[in-house]
Amino acid sequence: MSILSTPAGDLLAQLNQGEVTSVELTQACLDQISRHDQQLGAFLHIDREFALSQAKAIDEKRAAGETVGPLAGIPVAVKDVVCHKGQPCTCASRYLKDFIPPYSATAIEKLQAADAVLLGRTNMDEFAMGSSTENSAYQKTHNPWKEGYAPGGSSGGSAAAVGARMAPLAVGSDTGGSIRQPASFCGIVGMKPTYGRVSRYGLVAFASSLDQIGPFGTDVTATATLLQAMSGHDPLDSTSINQPAPDLLTDLDKPLDGLKIGLVKEFQADGLEEDVIKATDEALDVYRNLGAEVKDVSLPHARYGVATYYIIAPAEASSNLSRYDGVHFGHRAEKFKDLTDMYRQTREEGFGPEVKRRIMMGTYTLSAGYIDAYYVKALKVRRLIREDYDKAFAEVDFIASPACPTPAFKIGELIDDPLAMYLSDMFTLGANLAGIPGISIPAGMSGDGLPIGLQLLGPPLEEARLLRAAKMFEQATDWHLKVPELANHE
Ligand code: GLN
To answer: Whose CA is nearest to atom 4 of ligand 1?
Structure first.
């Protein structure tokens, strides 16, 4: 097995055993990026020298017999929405084209403390708004499995980079599915932790009550290692959970006994593609063969999820994005008549169409005349959705569904139909509204050779068990070992 097609968990072991150096691995990733990223478009910014200097420092630390961190020497790509001091952070927006953060996100500091190699900054939908990465102001990202197909979004660059084996691991953010949906489209593992598990300090805010940073990886073990390294209480984020980072690794390989998996009646909706239904059924059979009981559960308010999310997320976005005023940082229009015109021109030039749509929708639903009818109503429905999950988890350990109703769609296919695009989040956004953890794992292939992901959702704070359930599946299948053609060309 070549270095690039080796699962990330095995690479971590090989680094620890001295079978491969961080410089070798980092160089292999950089070479893969040189070969394919022109066409793939996963990265917005790569600093090769910086990447190699970190790798070298970690190799030296190890050679000197010093204790190294749990991610020692492994390259990690980072979505361009998580601040890293001194590196660009554009959020794929023209507005932040020249923005260099003066501080690092807590998650980045933790990755550095864990001795990860920060490889580069990945493409995304502008300010994380979208499901295809087409809303980037800079470039399109292609699905590594098929040119012309979307990698999903909004963390599409991170997912494509890992899918194409340009990085064994990556960081994304998930507000309504932006880690799990692209993970599913690119055939990799992606996880949204419980709300508050990873500090949001230094994550550029989209919808603060929904946003979470989370990991992508080519296998469950390395994904768990990455999440553990980023987790933990942070006094700089008042919504961070006041608990130590969970132990996700000690029992990871131990199968769970007497597992009960819920299948949501309301999710068996129209619009599910045949290949997706088949992959999900087969995945559930895998669990049945491992001794799990699969039973129906009901989430009666699930059908209001998309509407609720698309009121709450834009409302919070309109408030969060008011900071882009042409005064504090980022872009400022060159020509304007007066102060109001400066704001208007700056925002007109700085933001793309989807971001403007969200700001307008959010401003509308928060306006004095409509707040009760829309925003306050949506908050009440959000509560009911959360209660549905609580009730379901009294009956089952996890809830299984496809991560997305379809495999990857074509670039350009949904971009002019925002509602159709929003519907691709129907299985993922409930977890954000409820604040619960969810994971997408490779679980099949469509007839067209596009990956299909299985989503498992768990109760709050149950990341360790959720990862164990995912690992059981991985051990029983080989979907995670399939790599796209371009990962075989070295
Ligand atoms: N696709 C959803 C949206 O556009 C979710 C995005 C995300 O999770 N960042 O809002």
So the answer is: 130
